[in-house]
Amino acid sequence: MQEAEATKRLITKTQNPAVRLKYAIETARLRSASGQTAQARKDLEAALADASRIGLFIYQLESRLAIAEVELKSGQLSDARVALEELQKEARSKDFGLVAKKAASR
User: Fold this and answer.
1) I need a labelling partner for 30 at 20 to 30 A (CA). Which of 42, 66, 71, 100 fits?
2) Could you tell me if residue 40 is inside a domain?
3) Does some domain include residue 93?
């Protein structure tokens, strides 16, 4: 647990938005895995807003993918499927093949 706190302190000090966004997305995934889906969703929505505001498209895609994963976990299957299909199409059209594959495999 000390390592996690030390990492959090370092991440909040970084000027690199990509690092902060990646950390926020992965932390939200961990929250979701531990059953904190509402908080995970809130954190992912914030990450998506930040990524959109600063124009980091890959993190917009990653946030949307993680949101769909939370929806799947929380039983919102229809919403998740629609989001994953849209994400897959958009990622593929912008040459983000790995994200498209991840969306297709969920």
Assistant:
1) 100
2) yes
3) no
- The whole-number pLDDT of residue 31 equals 94
Residues 9-64: pLDDT tens digits?
Answer: 777 777 899 999 999 999 999 999 999 999 999 999 999 999 999 999 999 999 99
- Domain tally for the chain? 1
Element containing residue 74 per DSSP (H, E): none
Cα(35)–Cα(12) distance, rounded to whole angstroms? 24
What gap in Å lies between CA 93 and CA 25, rounded to an integer? 23
- 3-state SS class at 77: helix
Look-up: residue for tokens 């993190």?
A: 59
- Distance between CA 82 and CA 1 in Å, rounded? 37
Residue 68's domain spans which residues? 2-77
